[in-house]
Amino acid sequence: MVAYGDPQTPRFESEAETLRAALSRAEGAAAAAYRDTARLIRLLTVIGTPSSPGRLIDRTLTVLSEVFAADVVCIAEAIDDRLFVTASCGLPEDDPAFTDGWPVGPTARRVITSGSAAARHAVPPADRPPPLRDVEGTSAAWIPLSGMGTEFAGDVLALYRSGGDLFTPADLQVLLSMAYRMYSAVESRERGAAIERLAQAGPGLARHLDVGSLLDEAVVLLRELTGTDAAWVLTVRDDLAEVAAVADAAGDTGKRWPRPATDLPGWSRLAAGEAYVGPNPTSDDPILLVPVMRDGTVIAVLAARGRRVRSFGKSSVEIAQVLASYLSVAMANGEHYRRLKAREQELHRRASRDPLTGLANRMTAAQRIDEALANSPTGVAGLLFFDLDKFKAVNDRLGHEAGDELIQQVAQRLRKVVRPGDMLARFGGDEFVLLINGASDLTDLTDMGRRIQVALADEFPLRGERVEVTASIGAVLGRRGTASASAMLRDADAAMYAAKARGTGRLEVFDDEASHRSIDRLDLRSDLSEALDQGQLSVVYQPMVELKSNTIRSFEALARWRHPERGNVPPDVFIPLAEETGAIVPIGAWVLDQACRQLAMWQREFPEEHLTMSVNISAVQLERGHGELLDVIRAAGVDPTDVWLEVTEHMDTAEDISSQVSSLRDAGVHFALDDFGMSYSSLAYLQRFPVEGLKIDRSFVAAMPEAGNGGRGIVRAIMAVADSLSMKAFAEGIETQAQLDALLDLGCGYGQGHLLSPPLSVERSTAALRAQRDRA
Amino acid sequence: MWGVRVLTSNRAYRGVGTGNGTDTRVAAEKAVNEALRPLEGRQPDLVLVYASVRYDLQTVLKTVNAAAGPAVIAGATSSGQLHNGKLTEPGDGIAVLALAGGGYRFGLGHATGVQADATRAGRSLARAALDAVGPERSPHEAVLIFSDGLAGDQQELLNGIHKVTGFQIPVVGGAAADDRNLAETFVFAGDKVLRDAAVAIWIGSDRPLRVIGGHGWQPTSLPLMLSGVDGQIVRELGGRPALEVYKENFRPRVTDHKLYPRAGGYHSEHAFGLIQPDGSLLIRGAFIDSDGDLRTFSPLPPFSAVQVVSCDAEDLLEVGERVVAGVVEAEEPAVVLVFDCVARLDILGERGHEEARRLQRAAGNAPTFGYYTYGEFARTTGVAGYHNATIAAMAL
After folding, report:
1. What are the boundaries of the signal sequence (chain B) (predicted)?
2. Most CB within 10 Å of its CB: which of A17, A343, A610, A703?
């Protein structure tokens, strides 16, 4: 029965209730203790985790929002009567708090000035930031950061919670200690990051060899390293400071520049090599100035303007000073380089210019021609090569100085002819080269040539005289891919000589189509002029055989040219060249001399053979004034009657050769006509030239054995002609037994050819003669 | 770029449709057509799509896009869905909500690379959604998000979003799920099916937008310090091996209700509660993986104060009702969006259908529309707002 029950039960229930309540309180207290400990540890963990300063602040604010259930956590700096938020968790990124700031409430103001933290519940409207203006029952805590060291003076950490509990004194303790640690960490990381950045970028400054770009990079680096809005680099020269580079968010450098360096704030400190941090006289913003020194003198000043003093703590100053010393070295480098460059340019100018006229010189001209070939849009470059006719006469008559003066005057006039983009060069002496910009065809070249002639048409006043000057001009068009500067210059030069050959004041265009042929010829021409001196020429001897007895009766002397690079150059190539250039005169004389001396030697050794010698001569050799061939023959010690001179049908029988021909003929020298039958004028020629022998051309000999082509008939006819005129007939180019048989059959007395013997050296010729003598 | 939808009428029209079975196209067509029918030919402004990973998701979105025209379309894969008081069990189902009118403005944005940098992804996602909604701001705003539930730190994602929204704009949403496979989850943005991504819809409204979350879990342990965390693995609790401490604090089995089949050693009856500044708990699901490690879905902050928590079905059901009733205020909304953790469904077992009915009852005439998630977002106070084993809701 339970009447009023067991008194134990209620007591038990009430005790259990009490115990449960106590347990709950204990659990609650334990939870609170763990929560407080956990949040401190979490904050410290975040602060201790390696990250950038910005990320550290961001993470810390996020964790603060989490562990204090704060709607808004922010770091703000007080500037005048406004709080500018610099970092936040809980404000949208486009909130005006970041740009326009909030009014500094009375509590925040007190916290900043007193340096003590504060917390309020049911924050009055004046202390509520705009986003929480309408939220009654807001709790907030303000933690001053100004006491943490000068770097962060004026900064405050604020937490706002809509509704919820008061921030307790214990909370404030956690926040204070956390804020201190966070700022220490931020400071050391900012410093570490700045030093790292400086270590990376500083040495790289020296790569700027141009001072302008160096300072442009330095100023950006300065702004970045000091974390300011605006930075400049001022250069100081002759006590005047001038803005050389600017990195300014507002684009405002303040005063007029340049201005006396002594007007800079803290100049006395700067001049002593020390940094200046202090008020900027033109505004309330603090300013940092760090001198860049060289040899104890300020050469530049790094300047940074912050809107907060925190920008210029000790570490900012130190870092700016390190930057200044890097900059000093880099500027010195830059100046050395500039001087070096200027000297190089002067040297280059001297190397590339003709000192007399200031025109481009030979080397520059060649470069420019190659560039024009490479870069011309049409792929064509036009070139004129010209010299002054009879300049040598001026030089000889008035002296070299007058000659130089004339060259200068000519250059002056030519400058007026050239158009932008053309290049006029003096090649040396009286030679000029004009590269015509945009030339596309020969008309452009001839037009320009005419302009040059017109420019030179007026007489030149020189040493009280008036001198007439004309130019011989060679013109050439070069095409990209096939032409080169050297080839074009050579061709234009050749064309100029051709022009000169036609008279004065002429223009000759180099024939593009013929260029391939003539390039070789031109090369050979010049080489040939030296061949004799270089000992590259030799003489070989081809036996002329009495066919019937197969006995050597004579030799034909043949010139050979062994070119050092090209090897043996065939006579049908180099002989015409020698005739063109006139080199045939000395070469021909030399060959005749060699042949006659050799004949003399053989006649001494083989007197019984009655040997004779045939030597080819050119018409030029017979011209008056080119030496007497008879003298050469006599000097060699042979009887002129033992010498046959071979001439060709093409040889001009002009008046001026006939006298020498007569004297040779009178002395007993014989003439033979080479390659007889190859010209329609053959027979007429025989009437005018004292010829005593005919050489039957190899083409007729070759045709003899073939049926039905008349070869044999022609040979027979030539022999008949020879016979009727009392001339000897010689067959050339006997190469087969059939040809030999046919010639014997026709009664041809003499012949030569590979079947009988190829041209031989002296030694082998001598050996052949000995063998012949032994055989006999 | 995603367009912004501005409404012509203040009255909201909405429809909810579902489809199931093996044929993706048939299921998707049925769901979207059903959802559009009540709109009586009006162009929808917002279309939400929840689908089982069993479907060809590209086809699902293609079908929905074809039918829904230029609406803002978003959604996620699910582990079951709930709508109009009905439960679609994990492994099946496509659910579509179509909404027109109501004075709302929607801006859609998405971002990938959540795994690599969740904060950055969150920030760019929110910026994109804000850009899409246009420069004109509404008196009330909220952000609805879907995230790849298996990619990255979901609270970090929220931190990034928070930088753009600030504290005044609530965030609600869910992490995508995959029918408890814990293999791959996807989110939808327009016609895109994305992984390692998140999607946000910036919502502008003339009426207040209320976000509420609740869980109903109770601590079974004293507070503990999370002294060893290695990503998603919890190594130490209070200086001791975590698994040992965790198991010590399991609640003795008093009821013998049937649980859904578990996946991968997932143990839903217990979880961690992160102790919040106000003493409340933020639930973080935990399970023992095949290596025998105690693992969470998202990394827990090191040195957090936690408690082992457990729950019973009745508490979960009551909390759900309270959350839904809380978002349905005096004016009857067009729809109640629900993000319900699949862990709750696991614990409710057969009573899952009862939950769906009770949530609908709490919502009154407004249809409920939701899915079972791998994580819920309900950020209202402070930056913290990622939950597990929680139910979150917002009414439109």
Report:
1. none
2. A703
Chain A interface mutation, best of B303, B309, B386, highest count of A Cβ atoms under 10 Å: B303
Rounded to whole angstroms, the Cα distance separating A457 from A462 reads 15
Tell whether A612 is covered by a domain. yes
Q: Count structural domains, chain A.
A: 4
Q: Is the pLDDT of residue A633 over 80?
A: yes
Q: What is the pTM of this model?
A: 0.57
In Å, what is the CA distance from A223 to each residue of A57, A152, A285, A371, B381? 21, 18, 15, 45, 38
Q: What is the mean pLDDT of chain B?
A: 89
If pLDDT is split at 50, 70 and 90, which confidence band does A627 have?
A: low
Whichever domain contains A608, its CATH number is 3.20.20.450
The more confidently predicted of residues A308 and B337 is B337
In CATH, what number is assigned to the domain containing residue A394?
3.30.70.270
Of B169, B305, B382, the CB nearest to A69: B382
- The residue assigned the tokens 């996020």 is A62
Q: Are residues A741 and A717 in the same domain?
A: yes
A604-610 LR contacts (CB < 8 Å, sep 24+): A605/A766, A605/A769, A606/A769, A606/A773, A608/A773, A609/A552, A609/A553, A609/A769, A609/A772, A609/A773, A610/A553
Strand, coil or helix: B380: coil
* Residue of B389, B380, B381, B375 lying closest to B154 (CA atoms): B375
| Domain CATH for A121 | 3.30.450
- Kindly report the nearest CA distance between residue A98 and chain B, in angstroms: 13
CB contact under 8 A, A34 and B168: no
CB-CB under 8 Å, B279 with A31: yes
Q: Which residue has the tokens 């909604």?
A: B133
List of chain B residues whose C-beta atoms are within 8 Å of the C-beta of residue A27: 219, 222-223
For residues A595 and A627, membership in a common domain is answered with yes
Instruction: Tell how strand A750-751 and strand B72-77 pair up.
Output: unpaired
Considering only alpha carbons, which residue of chain A is nearest residue B120? Answer: A55
Element counts in chain B: helices (H) and strands (E)? 8, 28
Report the amino acid identity of residue A767: A
CA dihedral A681, A682, A683, A687 (to 10 degrees): 90
Chain A nearest-CA distance from B306, in A, is: 8
Q: Are residues A304 and A381 in the same domain?
A: no
Mutate to test the interface with B, among A35, A74, A85, A94 (most CBs of B within 10 A): A35
Same domain, A419 and A465: yes
Domain match, A331 and A357 both: no
DSSP B215-247: ---EE-S--EE--EEETTEEEEETTEEHHHHHH
CA angle, B71 then B75 then B76, to 5°? 160
| Mean pLDDT computed over every residue of chain A | 83
Tell me if A92 and B223 make a contact (CB, 8 A cut-off).
no
pLDDT digit string (tens) for A434-488? 998 878 788 888 889 999 999 998 999 988 888 889 999 999 988 877 788 888 8
Residue A156 lies in a domain: no
**CB neighbours of A500 closer than 8 A, spacing ≥ 6?**
A387, A389, A472, A506
The per-residue pLDDT for B384 is 87
Q: Are residues A212 and A136 in the same domain?
A: no
Answer whether residue A4 is part of any domain: no
* Residue A178 sits in the same domain as residue A206: no
Q: Grade residue A624 by pLDDT with cuts at 50, 70 and 90.
A: low
Domain span at residue A325? 202-249+260-337
Comparing CA positions, the residue from B276, B218, B353 lying closest to residue A68 is: B276
Measured between CA atoms, the residue of chain A closest to residue B169 is A92
The verdict on residue A345 lying in a domain is no
Do A181 and A238 belong to one domain? no
Residue A227: which CATH number? 3.30.450.40
